[in-house]
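Course assignment 3, question 2. Fill in each field.
Student: A.L.
Task: Predict the tertiary structure for the chain below.
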Amino acid sequence: LQDDASGTISGTPNLLLSNPSDVVKAVLLTVYPGTVAADFGASFATARASLAAAGYGWAMRLEPMSFSELRRKLGEQARASLHLESGKWEYSYLATGPTALLTLDADQDVLAESLIVSRTPRTQVRNSVRMRSHPDYRKSGADRFTRDSIREDLTQPGLTDRIQVDLEADFINDAAVADALGDFWLGQWKRPRAVVKLVTWWNVLAYEKYDAVAISNHAPLTAWGAALVFRIIGRRYLLGDEHPGRIALELVEANA
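Answer field:
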């Protein structure tokens, strides 16, 4: 993939595109008619800078697949999320232990008795990730990957037996990038994570999916241990509620 003479995607004329943020833009502009540059939100620039700093780059051949599968790969292989927000495509980089942009006071900013704390299911835990990368496109199926790397942590309390998952990184041909990606997803999957559902008000209007927030003055979360930071993974406007300014949020722990 190469940028055009105006540098529409990357800002650099005729640049060969390898940064995942640039590649995602190019794919959406090329493969899906009707997509224009104005359809991309500000998160693409933020993700581009974060991915460049982390050394992430793709070298890939785009093969036929469903959009749902492509969308998953475009996010998973760059520790990001590709999603629509307010009519624009957003590409949110998932930082490890992000800084909260907003702290919600459970006594003042959250509807009484609406805050529910749970954990992600234990059945979703994966404490060993087999990273499969460096595809050989002359082959098909799982045999096309020429490099395997095991990233695992069998030290979590009660989770010392290996629970492995394969992560096929068919966009990646760099060993350091493959290992870094495996380490990130291992960190996300190796233990259950706190999940919070709550109802708040217009004070969260400026915050979008995957933005980081914290919660104060809530004893069960304080007792959890480390100062918890959450990503917004769901947001609903309760327009039919008795108070139309209420907004329901679903949050998942984003700590390392």
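Instructor remarks: The first helix runs from residue 20 to 31. The helical segments are 20-31, 43-54, 67-76, 175-189, 219-223.
Grade: pending
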